[in-house]
Write a structure and sequence with these properties.
The protein has helices at about 5-25, 25-30, 30-35, 45-70, 75-85, 90-120, 125-140, 140-180, 190-200, 215-240, 255-260, 265-300, 310-325, 330-364. With about 375 residues, the protein is mainly α. The chain has a single domain (about 10-364), classed as Amino acid/polyamine transporter I (Up-down Bundle). Helix 7 packs across helix 12 (about 265-300).
Length: about 375
């Protein structure tokens, strides 16, 4: 735990771990997103989309975003987009809230499905546990959230690493066969591009931990590392899930399907615990960004955000998300996420890589 408090960790690794914690969502943690945007294009096509498209885009945009945030001392998305877009900053917030409710719908659906499938517990129990945990973390604020997100990410790396090792041991020949015999299906680059884009929309949600960065070198390095930190658990899972290709494609929770196929009960239980924690950390990251945006707006008016307001905001947003979760995990990811990608491309990526770079150079 002492390592988590070091200057090196906070500057270079913490932003990547927080990004990975928020990006994992219900779809990443359950494997549904990775199947939808990568494995649907075949094992090789999915691998190319993940490594050559998503990872490169993530690292590049993270690096520029972190440097812009550092340069203008903008550590919440409201401040960030006021500096980037001026009076049109609200356009990002509109799209962010659409993504926010989609993600809350996903984690609500996943939380209910997780306990129901594995333990026969009613959906509402899992949802209530998630609500309580997110409410507590948002009440405590950035310090505890940073520690929770980074610590749980490390645990997730361990579990997904074990998944990869045991999958290679048990299904090594099947994995090798599927990679060597599968064709690259058309659309793999678009799949990786869309997956990268809609996830990039959450980067401004992790700006609260960028205030540890002091120099351009630190910002760029943290960004480049962040893309790799964010994708690595997904890569572990992808290699393992190839062993079950193509039977796994229609599964609502592909990760559970793969863990169950390994026949290691203890590892399956550990995965279930970690997966439930990922739902909590994703919801926490998204909602904490909204709280930080409200805090920033109030401070600009000389006011303070009351401590009770943080969990209250969390509960309201989560209840709305629960209503959306009735549409189902597969439909939310397949239809909702793909459409919103282009909104972030227009209001975030294009302005950042043009106007944003110009402002960074000009301010230098």
């Amino acid at each position: 735990m002492n390592f988590l408090n070091t200057s090196f960790f906070k500057k270079y690794l913490l932003p990547g771990f927080v990004f990975q914690s928020v990006v994992i969502a219900g779809g990443y943690g359950t494997g549904r997103e990775l199947v939808e945007f990568f494995l649907n294009y075949g094992p090789l096509g999915g691998l190319l989309g993940m490594l050559l498209v998503t990872t490169v885009i993530w690292s590049l945009i993270l690096a520029v975003t972190f440097e812009f945030s550092r340069k203008f001392r903008a550590y919440d998305y409201r401040s960030f987009f006021m500096k980037l877009l001026g009076p049109f900053w609200f356009l990002f917030e509109i799209i962010y809230f659409v993504l926010l409710f989609l993600v809350l719908g996903v984690i609500g659906s996943a939380a209910g499905a997780l306990l129901k499938y594995n333990f026969g517990i009613p959906d509402i129990i899992g949802v209530m546990i998630m609500l309580g945990a997110i409410g507590f973390l948002t009440f405590k604020g950035s310090g505890l959230i940073e520690k929770f997100l980074s610590s749980w990410s490390i645990l997730l790396y361990v579990v997904y690493g074990l998944l990869l090792v045991f999958a290679l041991i048990k299904f090594g020949p099947a994995i090798q066969k599927n990679f060597s015999s599968a064709s690259i299906l058309p659309g793999w680059a678009v799949g990786g591009f869309k997956y990268a884009l809609y996830n990039l929309g959450i980067i401004p949600a992790v700006l609260f931990c960028i205030n540890h960065i002091e120099t351009r070198k630190e910002a760029i390095t943290a960004g480049l590392l962040g893309g790799m930190i964010g994708i690595l658990p997904g890569l572990f899972f992808f290699i393992a899930v190839v062993s079950q290709y193509p039977e796994v494609l229609p599964e609502e929770v592909p990760a559970y399907y793969v863990f169950q196929s390994l026949g290691i009960p203890l590892l399956l239980i550990l995965f279930q615990v970690v997966l439930f924690g990922t739902l909590i950390e994703t919801g926490t990251g998204f909602i904490h960004a909204v709280n930080e945006r409200i805090r920033s707006a109030l401070e600009a008016r000389g006011k303070m955000l009351p401590s009770w307001a943080r969990p209250t905001v969390a509960m309201v947003l989560l209840l709305i998300g629960l209503g959306i979760s009735t549409f189902g995990l597969v439909n939310l990811i397949a239809k909702g996420y793909g459409s919103i990608s282009w909104g972030f491309f227009i209001v975030y990526i294009i302005p950042l890589m043009t106007l944003g770079l110009y402002k960074i150079i000009k301010k230098s």
